[in-house]
Amino acid sequence: MNQNIKPYIEHVKGDTGCIVTGYARIxxxxxxxxxxxxxxxxxxxxxxxxxxxxxxxxxxxxxVLTTHGHPDHIGNHGLLRSAFDCELYMSPYVATICSDPxxxxxxxxxxxxxxxxKAHYPALFPDELINWRDDSxxxxxxxxxxxxxxxxxxxxxxxxxxxxxxxxxDAVLTEPVLRALRLTFCSCIMPDLAAKxxxxxxxxxxxILAHNGVCDEIRDLALQNRDSMLQKITMVxxxxxxxxxxxTLVRSVLIETENDLSSLRKIRGTHHNVSAIVSYLMDTxxxxxxxxxxxxxxxxxxxx
Length: 304
Ligand SMILES: [Zn+2]
Hints:
By secondary structure, the protein is α/β, with parallel strands linked by helices. It is built from 11 helices and 15 strands. The longest helix has 21 residues, at 219-239. The strands form 3 sheets. A 7-stranded mixed sheet has the order 1-2-3-4-5-6-7. It has a 6-stranded mixed sheet with strand order 8-9-10-11-12-13, with no helix packed on it. The radius of gyration is 20 Å and the shape is globular.
């Protein structure tokens, strides 16, 4: 699932394929035998292998469309731009967070200081903005249908290629990835659940999931992703049968999911996901917050 492998190209359907890395599938659409459009660009650690593969296949990247602003989806935008002089397409929110570490400081789950962010993410500006609410976008003469899939990340989009292949980015994960996750990474649960249900009703010829596979049917997997999220919400609700601060709740979830209590990255990632779940539980009237001697505490309203 997360191995170090030499990237290779897998054919999906017609002019649609994907670059397979150990961590992700990065869709590509052939404009002709030489020119391609990529959908996302993968983790930066895979960048050299991806560029090497494209050059070895004598392919030239003309444009990169971005589904959302997570580092494993925009990690090689700058590298691809310098290697191929391609155009970068992003939604307004993604363009905003990429353009300055100050903008990224809000809601960055893995880095907490301005200088850390500045060192890790060089400023990146798009060539074109994608209006993610539009039905479609035409790039280099190719029209992609846009799927609105916010929740996992702000302004997350999917794209359907002219071959009828839907790239769902991180809205649905493959079964092995889902099984391995302690908590599903999510910024806002309510639209994320709605996106998974919307995907369950989709009828495209094939589907590419960033992590990490290609499939012909999506309904069962989309509902399994939704149910897995619902189970995690129930777990957090149960842990709130006793009032907890966010800090102690995060610790309880780390213990419950047998996660590493000494990893800053895991604590911060869990904090991000638990905050989204608590916000959802408050929106749905299942949890309330109280102030107790200067501390915000959350407690379940469900009689157990
Ligand atoms: Zn993501």
